Amino acid sequence: MLHFSKYKITGIALAIFLGLLFSVPNFLSEDARLSLPAFLPSGKLNLGLDLQGGSHLLLEVDTGSITRERLETLISDIRIELRAKSIGYTGLSLVKNAVELTIRDESQIDEAIVVFDDLNQPVVNSLLGGVGGNAELTIEALDDGKFRFGFSEQAIIARNTKTVQQSIEIIRRRVDELGTTEPVIQRQGNTRILVQVPGLNDPERLKALLGQTAKLNFHLVDQNRSAYEAANSGRVPAGSLLVYTDTDPATPYLIPRRVMVSGERLVDASMGFDPTTGSPEVDFRFDSIGGKKFGEVTKTNIGRPFAIILDNKVISAPVIQSAILGGSGRITGGFSVQEANDLAILLRAGALPAPMSILEERTVGPGLGADSVAAGRLALIIGFVAVIVFMALSYNLFGLFANAALIINMILIMGVLSALQATLTLPGIAGIVLTVGMAVDANVLIFERIREEIAAGQPALVAVDKGYSRALGTILDANVTTLLAAIILFQLGSGPIRGFAVTLAIGIVTSVFTAFVLTRFFVARWIRSRGRSVELPI
Question: pTM to 2 decimals?
């Protein structure tokens, strides 16, 4: 147990060196860190929302809008299929959360039922990537040829789950575009999403980025009828939509319902500047299909206004001057630099599948975070000093060995956290404080076993060897069970709980290394330097 080969010594030295190497950037200024050579690690610990401040939002996804859109699509599908089969119907409309219609001719009811069954698709299981055994629609036959269509509970759950998952992914893309580190984006309950962005002290900008659905479409402007007349009369022609600009006063536009080019075909968007005026603009680029459609529309509609619609608001309606065949274009609209940049972020990240509302917003100031850091640092220092004094007084020279290992343990924890670019939270500091106590506990077990062997009359070298051997099983049992608890906390917990679990797990691994390997190395080297008959200072 007390023999260390050259390979073991090299491994110990390498582990300590790497810990120091990754820890050092945390003690350097920002300029000093950036000036480090490229081959050296320069990353530092990321501080969580509770330590450096930032923005906190609790969002709720409007899953009801997805259901309404699907019902409207169902109405269109029913109309198309019944007309294709020449089946007469009446009263096809949306009634609350269901679609109702009546088949005129009773002799065609059986044929209509076949059509309805073909429209009824199985529920897609988003978790397994396949289809389930449950049908999407509930079809209820009423009296006099009347039918009512609704969605099954399984279909609603599956669609809501998919919507929330898609929303989380798009929110993550938008937040990542802000350049922040380690944001917390996670689902809460069935329809809510928690967003915490450390270091971002502008909640209004975050709300603007996350609150927009960012559904972008391109429509031709209807020039045959007056938008102002439709707005004043409240009568919108069939097949058209009345949309407004987001200005004061708002300008109405009458556009066909048909989408000429969908924003789903965008592959890139970036902020640029108009070469003529120098004002900010948004440059965008379509994929091959979208670029082809965009080129065809602009080629055949030269001289017509082309409305760019974002979330049912007209942001620009330029007149098509010439065919745009390159698959790219630009959006101008009197943007500021930040507005143009934010719009580009929204377009790059993609549209949200459903609108979201803000249920809770909170800003944690850097002052509060600084107070938390100071309190955590004070607790760590007091605990660390108390442990060092106790070990030195209780175990003399061996206590000093344990203290040296404890200092190295702290360096290793900081180095691993920095290498992983983990986020340190206030519960994470608590986890580090806990591991300090656990590291000392392992040393206490070892030294007490050594004292028992000395009391039994064993020589110094044998007493140390048996002390470490007898304590090994107890140390591993205690630390493995704690490590399992940390893993469970990480898997099932969220936010601060995960921060605590990460530091606890890392601290357990480094504590076992420093307590059982490093202190054993110190003790073995000291004993061999003084001979086998040395009296142990313990």
Answer: 0.62
